[in-house]
Amino acid sequence: MDNFQLTIIGSGAMMPTKFRHPSCYFLEVGRKKILLDLGHTSIGRLIDQGIDLHSIDILFVSHFHTDHSLKRITKNADLLLIEAGYIKPTPNHFTMDQIIKLAESAKIKKTIATHLRDADLPILRKKIKNYKNIILAEDLMRIKI
Question: Which among 109, 106, 107, 112 has a CA at the least distance from the CA of 128?
Fold first, then answer.
């Protein structure tokens, strides 16, 4: 089993305090570097910890919210797992059009859209049919990275 190390970059809620910043977790498994969520103060805190933002291989974004910002950190990532799938924007979720734009502009190798509604699947499948690097998540799906 690969060695792994978890660094808690932030363990608080949306508003930072003197002792806590918005949630962000940096996981190293072997040589893979994984970022779980990205609170709005996380980039500076990652840099303070000596973490090269461009070395992050995988980024998990549990939801779209003011305390989670993608900025340029996703550039050339191996995998982006993002809670989305909505046809119309909601305050907490990306639309498929936003995911496509992010995946293309950041040159992400593989993007997995999660939190999908069955009723939206036919429309979402049409939207991504020309994007081989964007996948709609399915229960019990295994993804090789």
Answer: 112
